[in-house]
């Protein structure tokens, strides 16, 4: 385990023995200070620190003694330098004090003379020590300063040990609570086991009694049957005629027997009436026979009941076994807890041992094996990123960057982290500060990629330079870098350079590990296809049409191995699309792809005759089109195709191979957009030119229409697959259930035969198209042997429903954007989708297969879609009412103002209005922010603070501390309740929601600057106050974090937390109010136009979004302002982990790591400097 050890960490250069630099004593230029020799003490302290030996108790005591001696000497010097006191006119007692002081000074002078003599005697030794110190330090630092550093390091060690002691105490308390919990749990488990044992004994006794009762009833039935048999023997002669009559009336007797079976007590009634019924021999024999049959039936029922009782016993035994397993798991948990406790103890012991060591080098294990500091740090960061310990990786890099010794290494590591998180401008900025040789050696892929993202020419030149400098026989590290660079070149659409990279990489594939080799070989093969297609296109330029009719069939190969389809459900979609193609019986299919035409002809033989269309007598050439990498082939003009499914998977996170390759003529239906980044300007123009677009779900309809693309809801292609499969007609008495990527609830399919399947597998990537299509057919045929299908996959639910099967569909989230319009359909709704797709495709394919021009085919498609387009127009314009706030914001704000506390400097009309929302968690950080804001403000501030969990004493304290510099108003928001459906970030609290009340809370104020508390003001807020809003409601800085970059991110994320019907309602309402493709802003620093927000009745209409629809305050502000926002520069909201902060006017420590946490964050020291300044000014203790 790598434990953090800080004893060797450099001390804070801004502090001098606990005193800020502005208050620190001036350092003397040499070791001789006013005749007192400080060199021996400083040399002794430095020797202990710099020898690299462990800090023993003896050495620590020695340092402390020398430190105390130094302090004593400094005090003597200060007393000696005290200004003389004038004796003129002084009282006698003052004169006595002066005489005493003179005597004391004379004694001190004698001591100083002795010290000078001692200095002369030891001058030779001092010179030798000074030379040694020069060699060790390499710089002109004085021995006195080294002594102070050693003292500070010692205090640092002591503080660390004390903190670890406190941690140990907390751990002991936690372990004590764990033991108590375990004791209680053991008792509970013991009681539960005893209850189970008692239940088993009672149940065993009850089962034995019940079984005995059933056996007695069976014996009694047998005795009655024996008596009846004897009576039948005595009357055998009389029964002969009755038996003949019975043969004639057997059917009637069987009906009577069936009725007798439904009456459990019939035999007792029949036996009681036996004497009366035997008056007639024929009737008596008939009845006796019936009784015998009834008794046999009841015997069988008794046996069944006995079996049921035994089954009940088995179930109880199963529950008992489950309980025992629970106890076993509990014991395992106890064991694991103990192991974790032991691990924690070991970690604490290791941390203490490490703290006692003065050699706290970075990553000692790597460095001990001879790894350089740079290599070790880079490898450490990459390992943490690979293990998804992103926060730790960033803190490690920032800690290095904030140390003057390791600043360059930290900058390199921070650049690697920034690139991994997608902050390309920051990565470029950081790499530019590092020596090029380091970047080229340790981060070439990140460096080249970040350059390409900002300047293609610079990135291409950097790649060429790096490749030229590569040795003729690269090692495994450089082979790995080549593979990574090739991927990033693809991601940046530089496929020609990627081809150059893989050409250099191909001979080196054996140097890679198995996973890297497989992915790289795949990339080499796919780029080779692209290169061949490019050369083919050069030989056959665009614009040449040979008159042939061609049709493209969707396949799913792509450049990125990990994103290439591994889901056979994709090929089920292709199968469904082909079920519409093979309807034309007069069309002859050919293909240059081996086996493709034959496979399609074979599929045609499966078609239900009711769906056959004569169609034109034409020859159609079939070609394959990789949906996610259509440029892997060159297509002769023209090629019609049906564009359906998920659009689309990016290659290596960033490269969407869209628009399609030239000469492809897509008809888009069952089209789904899952990633907004797919809709580039080129993609939007392409979809407009090939519209209208039939969308698989309503969310895609909303998104496309925002971009001016004609779109309507078509539903999913897989609803049409049923016509190439026979309907299932037979059923089994015992239901067989197929679980397809489905996790059942306990007891959900109890008593049913269950089989488990998955539709995902890497073999799908490697198989040929025809092989995958065969597997898709076999998959659906296999499902038909089951009575029930339970699945979480859309492309299992819809096709099996199309086959007429009973389907349970439970995805991970029914609120997923893919499902609006596709669930809760009912038979009529499902048929409407299926019939609509089949009818439209029949018309458009007939036109395409007949050889019609592109314009004619497009017209047929538009005419077929006209009714659906008209319905979509009407549907998307329907007003969706999300309701109003559950309280009256204006009335509540008035109540809050009545309980407010106002203090400090008198408020003025020209004050800069600043607002904060804070609770008890950040109560001690707010004064630091105020300190920084007031220190840099050129105009007076009026600060409005909305608080939760902070009493009136806190308000009065801040007024006392800042009241001479600002006006302050405090409002208690503890009474404001936003309901129990709030959704907040893990590092935020409900107090951040309170800013939504500002328009009603401050009715006389036109605008206000709102600031989060995790900020530091370095600029003049008067400049921010001067930003012109006009009629815009908000001014804010655009978000640099990818997950928060657009408005639809916020609306869709909130909808994903709701029930599916509320999610549909929210998404449709948000789209209906205006486009969601606007660039979102970070709400940590905003200027609010309160007058505009009051005019819009903001709180009443947007508080419901946080009360009932899963949004947070930042979401609500964004979907309110949308495109009307005034853009603030990065300098007014610079996030150290995301932005270039060199010119920051406000630092925003967004995210879970704050300057007051244990983990490091760059520029966090500045916050702590202001904290020290605030504490020093107010006299408060930290």
Through-space gap between termini: 32 Å
Identify the CATH architecture of the largest domain.
Alpha-Beta Complex
Percent of residues in helices comes to 40-55%
Q: Spatial order of the strands in the main sheet?
A: 14-17-16-15-18-21-20-22
Oligomeric form? single chain
Largest sheet: 8 strands, mixed
CATH level-4 homologous superfamily of the largest domain: Spore Coat Polysaccharide Biosynthesis Protein SpsA, Chain A
Total strand count, please?
23
CATH class placement of the largest domain: Alpha Beta
Number of helices: 41
Strand content: 5-15%
Q: Indicate the structural class.
A: alpha/beta
Keywords: Coiled coil, Glycosyltransferase, Metal-binding, Transferase
InterPro entries: Glyco_trans_8, Glycosyltrans_8_dom-fam, Nucleotide-diphossugar_trans
EC number: 2.4.-.-
Pfam family, one: Glyco_transf_8
Layout of helices and strands:
Elements: E1 32-33, E2 36-37, H1 39-50, H2 57-80, H3 92-121, H4 123-137, H5 143-234, H6 236-248, H7 250-261, H8 266-272, H9 274-277, H10 281-355, H11 364-368, H12 373-386, H13 390-401, H14 407-420, H15 424-431, H16 436-442, H17 444-454, H18 456-469, H19 476-491, H20 495-505, H21 514-539, E3 549-555, H22 568-581, E4 588-591, H23 596-604, E5 619-626, E6 639-647, E7 664-673, H24 681-689, E8 693-695, H25 698-706, E9 711-713, E10 736-740, E11 753-757, H26 763-766, H27 769-783, E12 788-791, H28 794-802, E13 806-809, H29 826-849, H30 854-876, H31 889-898, E14 901-904, E15 912-919, H32 926-936, E16 941-948, H33 952-962, E17 967-972, H34 998-1001, E18 1007-1011, E19 1015-1017, H35 1021-1025, E20 1034-1038, H36 1047-1055, H37 1060-1072, E21 1081-1089, H38 1090-1095, H39 1098-1108, H40 1113-1121, E22 1126-1128, E23 1146-1148, H41 1164-1178
Parallel strand pairs: 3-5, 3-6, 4-5, 6-7, 8-9, 10-11, 10-12, 12-13, 15-16, 15-18, 16-17, 20-22
Antiparallel strand pairs: 1-2, 14-17, 18-21, 19-23, 20-21
Helix pairs in contact: 1-2, 1-4, 1-5, 2-5, 5-10, 6-10, 7-10, 8-10, 12-13, 12-14, 13-14, 14-15, 15-17, 17-18, 17-19, 19-20, 20-21, 22-27, 22-28, 25-37, 29-30, 32-41, 36-37, 39-40
């Amino acid at each position: 385990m790598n434990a953090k050890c800080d004893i060797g960490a450099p001390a804070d250069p801004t502090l001098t023995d606990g005193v800020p630099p502005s208050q620190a004593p001036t350092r003397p230029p040499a070791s001789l200070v006013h005749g007192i020799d400080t060199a021996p003490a400083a040399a002794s302290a430095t020797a202990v620190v710099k020898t690299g030996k462990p800090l023993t108790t003896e050495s620590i005591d020695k340092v402390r003694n020398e430190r105390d001696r130094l302090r004593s000497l400094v005090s003597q010097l200060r007393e000696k330098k005290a200004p003389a006191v004038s004796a003129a006119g002084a009282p006698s007692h003052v004169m006595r004090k002066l005489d005493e002081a003179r005597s004391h000074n004379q004694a001190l002078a004698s001591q100083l003379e002795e010290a000078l003599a001692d200095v002369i005697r030891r001058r030779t030794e001092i010179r030798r020590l000074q030379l040694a110190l020069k060699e060790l330090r390499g710089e002109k630092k004085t021995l006195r300063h080294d002594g102070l550093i050693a003292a500070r390091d010692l205090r640092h060690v002591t503080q660390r040990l004390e903190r670890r002691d406190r941690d140990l105490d907390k751990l002991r308390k936690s372990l004590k609570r764990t033991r108590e919990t375990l004791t209680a749990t053991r008792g509970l488990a013991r009681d539960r086991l005893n209850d189970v044992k008692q239940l088993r004994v009672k149940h065993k006794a009850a089962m034995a009694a019940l079984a005995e009762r059933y056996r007695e009833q069976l014996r009694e039935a047998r005795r009655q049957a024996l008596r009846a048999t004897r009576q039948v023997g005595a009357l055998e002669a009389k029964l002969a005629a009755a038996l003949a009559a019975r043969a004639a009336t057997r059917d009637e007797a069987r009906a009577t027997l069936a009725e007798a079976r439904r009456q459990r007590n019939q035999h007792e009634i029949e036996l009681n009436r036996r004497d009366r019924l035997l008056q007639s021999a024929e009737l008596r024999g008939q009845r006796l026979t019936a009784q015998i049959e009834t008794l046999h039936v009841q015997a069988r029922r008794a046996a069944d009941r006995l079996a049921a009782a035994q089954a009940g016993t088995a179930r109880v035994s199963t529950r008992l076994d489950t309980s025992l397993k629970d106890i076993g798991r509990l014991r395992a948990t106890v064991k694991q807890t103990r192991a974790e406790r032991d691990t924690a103890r070991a970690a604490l012991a290791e941390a203490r041992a490490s703290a006692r060591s003065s050699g706290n080098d970075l990553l000692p294990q790597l460095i001990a094996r001879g790894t350089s500091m740079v290599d070790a740090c880079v490898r450490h960061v990459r390992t943490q990123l690979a293990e998804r310990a992103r926060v730790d990786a960033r803190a490690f890099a920032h800690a290095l960057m904030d140390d003057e010794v390791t600043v360059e290494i930290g900058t390199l590591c921070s650049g690697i982290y920034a690139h991994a998180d997608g902050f390309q401008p920051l990565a470029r900025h950081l790499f530019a500060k590092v020596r090029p040789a380091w970047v080229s050696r340790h981060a070439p892929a990140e460096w080249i990629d970040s350059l390409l993202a900002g300047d293609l020419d610079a990135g291409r030149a950097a790649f060429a330079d790096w490749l030229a400098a590569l040795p003729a026989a690269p090692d495994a590290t450089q082979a790995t870098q080549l593979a990574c660079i090739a991927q990033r070149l693809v991601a940046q659409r530089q496929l020609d350079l990627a081809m150059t990279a893989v050409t250099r990489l191909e001979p080196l594939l054996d140097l890679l590990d198995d996973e890297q080799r497989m992915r790289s070989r795949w990339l080499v093969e796919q780029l080779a296809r692209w290169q061949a297609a490019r050369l083919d296109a050069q030989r056959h330029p665009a614009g040449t049409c040979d008159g042939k009719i061609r049709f493209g069939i969707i396949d799913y190969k792509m450049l990125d191995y990990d994103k290439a389809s591994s889901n056979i459900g994709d090929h089920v979609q292709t199968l469904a699309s082909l079920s519409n193609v093979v309807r034309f019986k007069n069309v002859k299919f050919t293909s240059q792809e081996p086996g493709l035409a034959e496979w399609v002809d074979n599929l045609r033989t499966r078609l239900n005759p009711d769906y056959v269309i004569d169609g034109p007598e034409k020859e159609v050439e079939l070609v394959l089109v990789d949906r996610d990498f259509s440029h892997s082939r060159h297509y002769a003009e023209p090629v019609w195709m049906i564009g359906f499914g998920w659009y689309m998977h990016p290659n290596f996170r960033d490269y969407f191979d869209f628009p399609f390759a030239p000469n492809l003529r897509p008809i888009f239906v069952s089209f789904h957009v899952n990633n907004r980044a797919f809709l580039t300007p080129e993609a939007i123009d392409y979809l407009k030119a090939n519209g209208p677009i039939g969308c698989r779900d309503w969310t895609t309809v909303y998104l496309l229409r925002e971009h001016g693309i004609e779109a309507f809801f078509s539903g999913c292609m897989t609803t049409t697959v049923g016509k190439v499969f026979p309907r299932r007609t037979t059923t089994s008495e015992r239901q067989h259930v197929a679980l397809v990527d489905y996790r059942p609830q306990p007891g959900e399919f109890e008593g049913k035969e269950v089989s488990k399947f998955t539709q995902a597998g890497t073999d799908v990537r490697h198989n040929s198209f025809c092989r995958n299509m065969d597997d898709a057919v076999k998959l659906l045929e296999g499902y038909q042997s089951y009575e029930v299908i339970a699945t979480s996959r859309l492309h299992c639910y819809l096709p099996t429903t199309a086959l007429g099967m009973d389907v349970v569909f439970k995805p991970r989230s029914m609120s997923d954007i893919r499902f609006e319009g596709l669930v809760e359909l009912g038979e009529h709704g499902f048929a409407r989708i299926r019939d609509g797709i089949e009818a439209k495709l029949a018309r458009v394919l007939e036109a395409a297969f007949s050889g019609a021009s592109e314009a004619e085919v497009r017209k047929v498609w538009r005419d077929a879609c006209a009714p659906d387009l008209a319905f979509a127009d009407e549907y998307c314009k329907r007003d969706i009412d999300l309701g109003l706030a559950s309280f009256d914001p204006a009335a509540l704000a008035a109540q809050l103002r009545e309980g407010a506390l106002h203090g400090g400097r008198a408020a003025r009309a020209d004050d800069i209005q600043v607002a904060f929302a804070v609770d008890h968690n950040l109560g001690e950080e707010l004064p630091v922010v105020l300190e920084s804001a007031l220190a840099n403000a050129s105009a007076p501030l009026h600060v409005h603070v909305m608080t939760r969990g902070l009493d009136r004493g806190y308000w009065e304290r801040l007024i006392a501390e800042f009241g001479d510099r600002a006006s302050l108003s405090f409002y208690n928001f503890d009474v404001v309740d936003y309901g129990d459906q709030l959704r907040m970030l893990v590092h935020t609290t409900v107090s951040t929601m309170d800013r939504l009340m500002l328009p009603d809370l401050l009715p006389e104020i036109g605008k206000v600057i709102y600031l989060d508390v995790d900020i530091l003001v370095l600029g003049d807020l008067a400049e921010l106050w001067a930003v012109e809003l006009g009629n815009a409601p908000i001014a804010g800085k655009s978000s640099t974090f990818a997950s928060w970059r657009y408005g639809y991110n916020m609306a869709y994320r909130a909808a994903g937390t709701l029930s599916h019907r509320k999610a549909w309602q929210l998404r449709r309402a948000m789209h209906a109010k205006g486009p969601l493709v606007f660039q979102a802003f970070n709400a940590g620093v905003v200027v609010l136009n309160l007058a505009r927000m009051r005019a819009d009745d903001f709180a009443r209409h947007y508080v419901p979004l946080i009360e009932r629809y899963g949004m947070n305050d930042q979401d609500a502000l964004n979907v309110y302002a949308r495109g009307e926002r005034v853009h603030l520069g990065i300098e007014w909201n610079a996030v150290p982990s995301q932005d270039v902060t060199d010119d920051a006017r406000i630092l925003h420590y967004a995210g879970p790591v704050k300057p007051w946490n244990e983990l490091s964050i760059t520029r966090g020291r500045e916050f702590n400097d202001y904290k020290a300044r605030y504490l020093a000014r107010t006299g408060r203790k930290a």
